[in-house]
Amino acid sequence: MENVIEIKNLKKYFGTVKAVDDISLNVKKGQLFAFLGLNGAGKSTTINILVGILEKDSGECLINNKSIENINAILPEIGIVFQSSILDKNLSVYENLKYRAMMYDLTNEQFEKNLTFFVENLEMKDILTKPLDKLSGGQKRKVDIARALIHKPSILILDEPTTGLDPKTRSLVWQLVNNLRKKENLSVLLTTHYMEEAVESDFVVIMDNGKIVATGTPNQLKNKYANDYVKLFNYDKKILKILEKEKITFQKNKEFLLIEFKNTMLAKNFVVENKHLIFDLEILKGKMDDVFLNVTGKNLKENL
Amino acid sequence: MKSELKKMKYLISRNIKLYFKDKFTFFVSLITPFILFILFVTFLKTTYENNLEAIIQNYSVNKKIINAFTGGWLFSSVLSTSCITVAFCSGMMVLDKITKANIDFCVSPVKNSTLQISYVVANLITTLIVCSILFFIGLLYLTFIGFYLSFSDIILIVFNMILTSLLGCLIANIIWTFASSQGVVSSVCTLISAMYGFICGAYMPINTMGETIKNVTVFFPGTYATLLFRKGFLNGTLNEMGKTLPNEMVEEIAKSFDCSFKFFGNSVSTATMFLVLIGSITIFFIILFLVSKLKRKSK
Asked: Total domain count for chain A?
């Protein structure tokens, strides 16, 4: 699959702070690519370099095989949704979208056609003539997404796009993004704090202190970095002695016994060896939260 | 090129629309020079009438002409300062930085020069709208107290109004390139409002200033803008005075009230004044271009 974004040895320092420290990565066409990291990890700095807001210190960034040195040539191929809305609050939704669309040299007919698509797909008909500052947070985010995609780019960059959205709007946003991915083969570069969004990605990069500390598909990362759990609901008490003897970590409460294993194979072997003591069980794969914790030593939720 | 012009058209339209959507800012921009004019007429008109009568002494001049002269002088002062102060207070560049809308344009395929020019042009249009309303009020006022403006005087004033506003917009946008908060905007606007009228000879005739200050003011392009407004508003009245007063006296009045001007002993013609203004505009345009380029490189 061809690369739509290629980053090679990218560096950006702010004085002594190494915001982005020699990172390399590729985003493939049609891929949902997730950036995971705490605030200050370097995710937004990388995105800001890609879209021309910041200049890199060194390294190479290519978008659709074109260098970002000539940023105006690649910006029509990118749509970006920022962490918070940066549209004009005193203008109506229609005016905001029209003024922004015209920066991409769209004709009035093209704009109206694209607008109709988003009005229908994002349920924006009722808010089109309203000023932006009269909209709810969810409605504003819809407009932000429509603004990012109004020129039908091939790459969509989402910088924590669903933060603060209600579940219905979040689902609506993802429905639209996924539809576009299928229909238009849209490539998506996502930064998020929501693990359920990262787990849906095709590829995940975890950043910490400006460096890439882990890469892979969610499954590869979980297999490599997350623990597996065996949850026993009905069991023979003798199993507790075995766990203590073999020094296996576990938690016990009234409902169940939760046993932690480094990987699936160890969990499977334990269950097979002790099947005569286990009557009701559930095997759980590790979550992305565990991956993040094990890779960075930091708890994502606690640091938000 | 055609594409950038189209983008510029929409950016200018957006900036103007945003300015007028904020009715409070528009109202304040309009009311401030109007209040200044009322204060001038209330507190200074009599003083200038007395100064004029002191020159005229025993000659008899129609009261209407004296009213037209002092009214025109005061109004030229207000219009001269307003072209600059309104330009400073009606720019969209800092507002875009505060709301971060500038980032949205940064990630759009629009050239930095297109963006900068659109800020200046939108700023110029809003300034001209406010100043034109003010000019219309001034013409109405002069119609009531004594109107001696010819068509060419009005053309001179309008042309000068465009150039002075453009000069103000360029200087304002150079400063706004380095500003990013409302606090800085308010401070600069207050400073400009307080200082500009004095340093460009709008609040008091340059002729009454000390020699050192006089020598400094001749290097400010704003001084020439004020002098051109004086010429536009007072040429007709001076011609009318010439019908009843000796030429030397009219020249003395013109000199005392900055209707004629000398640069280190050399008379400065109207055309030279316009050239100074156009030259200054060109220089400030180049500075704005360089500053924007430098600022973009330092990201």
From this structure: 2
Residues A186 and A231 in one domain: no
Q: Is A99 on the interface with B (CB under 8 A)?
A: yes
Q: Are B38 and B203 in contact (CB under 8 A)?
A: no
Q: CA quadruple B253, B254, B256, B262: dihedral positive or negative?
A: negative
Q: List CB contacts of A102: < 8 A, sequence separation 6 or more.
A: A111, B6, B7, B10
| Containing structural domain, residue A212 | 3-85+146-221
| Together in a domain, A72 and A35 | yes
Give A75's contacts in chain B (Cβ within 8 Å). 107-109
What is the tens place of the pLDDT at every residue in B263-288?
877 888 999 999 999 999 999 999 99
Instruction: Give kind and range of the element (H or E) at residue A67.
Output: strand A66-67
Contact A78 B107 (CB under 8 A): yes
Cross-strand pairs, A260: A229
Choose among A53, A99, A105: nearest Cβ to B14.
A99
Give chain B's domain count: 1
Q: Is A104 on the interface with B (CB under 8 A)?
A: yes
How far is the C-alpha of A141 from the C-alpha of A283, rounded, in Å?
38
Where does a domain end: A176, A205, A221? A221
CATH number at residue A19: 3.40.50.300
pLDDT in tens, B14-62: 999 999 988 888 888 888 888 888 888 888 888 888 888 888 887 888 8
Written as one letter, the residue type at A103 is M
Per-residue pLDDT tens over the stretch B86-99:
999 888 888 899 98
A83 touches chain B (CB under 8 A): no
Please provide the size of chain B in residues.
299
Taking CA B78 as the corner, what is the angle to CA B73 and CA B83, rounded to the nearest 5 degrees? 125
DSSP state of A92: B
- So what's the ipTM on this one? 0.84
Residue A300 pLDDT level (bands cut at 50, 70, 90) = low
Distance CA A154, CA A188 (A): 9
| 8 A C-beta contact, residue A285 and residue A292 | no
Rounded to a whole number of angstroms, the distance from the CA of A144 to the nearest CA of chain B is 11
Residue A129, in any domain of the structure: no
